[in-house]
Specification:
37% strand, 4 domains, elongated, five-stranded antiparallel β-sheet, Type Iii Antifreeze Protein Isoform Hplc 12
């Protein structure tokens, strides 16, 4: 019985020694969500010791670098068996955050200006397109817009923004920009290939700055519906008049029927189209019987009409 107890004691002692011998490991890259860095964020410790606060966390979205000397002092202060391998050892701590994007900031600024009577059909564009605001992950990502200055003649603005809103400790940033007049433009919802007919359900509307709209940009959905691209068109991009056309009823090289209608007389002949044509287009056709080239008007699928009977050879 004493032998079993002795063996058990040896096992317990061995396990305790093994636990004591487990090396302390530095965590070189850490993401924290709170305002403080804990000992357990930096080293592989557990229990109450892991929750000891050792440093202020960086601002949301930012990072802090703790060097080997500082880490060694902390480890020694709390009785950890850790020493740096070199002066290059370090721990990088990043504060988790929610990002308020440039577009969201612009929307908030426009809303604040609209409250002052500005035309809502505008777009606010920041001078600094790289601006982002970070809010702690535990807080609500709200934004305050204050100290608004706006010049009606130039449409330029300057404001102060802070996040989260109503937080007296939130950092404030001064931002500038300009308002731009917008116009709705029809674009395609999907890629449409040459030869496909654009339908009403293929169209959606987007807002585009007026100063970015080219003179030949299509502004009405009716100018797109029933038309076909000359080449494949991407979705979501404003279109120009030269990119679309009416559907082809006659293609170059097609055999067509040429008709001539007069009161009390209707003649027809065969020919080969020399050009593509949509309804109402004037195209050239080679008469199969006489090889004469005649100008015709496209009436329908592979059907054209000719005006001058003297140029139309019949059997």
């Amino acid at each position: 019985m004493r032998t079993n107890a002795l063996a058990l004691g040896l096992v317990v002692a061995l396990l305790a020694a093994t636990a004591r011998a487990e090396p302390t490991v530095l965590r070189e890259s850490v993401v924290v969500s709170g305002k403080f860095v804990q000992l357990g964020d930096l080293f592989n410790v557990s229990g109450d010791k892991a929750r000891i606060l050792v440093a202020q966390a960086p601002e949301p979205g930012k990072r802090a670098v703790f060097d080997a000397r500082w880490l060694f002092r902390v480890a020694r202060a709390y009785g950890l068996e850790w020493r740096p391998f070199s002066v290059h050892d370090r721990a990088v701590v990043q504060r988790k955050s929610q990002v308020i994007t440039t577009e969201e900031i612009e929307d908030h600024i426009l809303a604040a200006l609209m409250d002052r009577g500005i035309d809502p059909n505008m777009h606010a564009r920041l001078s600094n397109r790289m601006l982002r605001l970070h809010v702690a992950a535990s807080e609500e990502a709200t934004l305050a817009v204050e100290n608004i200055s706006y010049d009606e003649s130039t449409r330029r603005f300057a404001v102060h923004v802070s996040a989260p809103a109503n937080d007296p400790l939130a950092r404030r940033a001064r931002v500038t920009g300009r308002l731009h007049k917008m116009n709705e433009v029809p674009v395609l919802r999907r890629r449409v290939l040459a030869g496909e007919i654009v339908k009403k359900e293929d169209i959606k509307w987007i807002n585009v700055r007026i100063d970015k709209i080219q003179p030949n940009t299509l502004l009405n959905a009716e100018d797109l519906i029933g038309k076909t691209p000359r080449r494949g068109l991407r979705s979501g991009v404003p279109l120009r008049t030269q990119q679309i056309r009416r559907p082809l009823l006659v293609s170059k090289g097609d055999m067509v029927t040429i008709v001539l209608k007069r009161p009390g007389m209707e003649l027809s002949a065969k020919g080969r189209a020399i050009e593509d044509g949509s309804e109402g287009d004037t195209i050239r056709v080679a008469n199969s019987q006489s090889d004469n080239i005649v100008e015709t008007v496209v009436l329908g699928a592979n059907l054209v009409a000719v005006e001058a009977p003297s140029r139309l050879a019949m059997n």
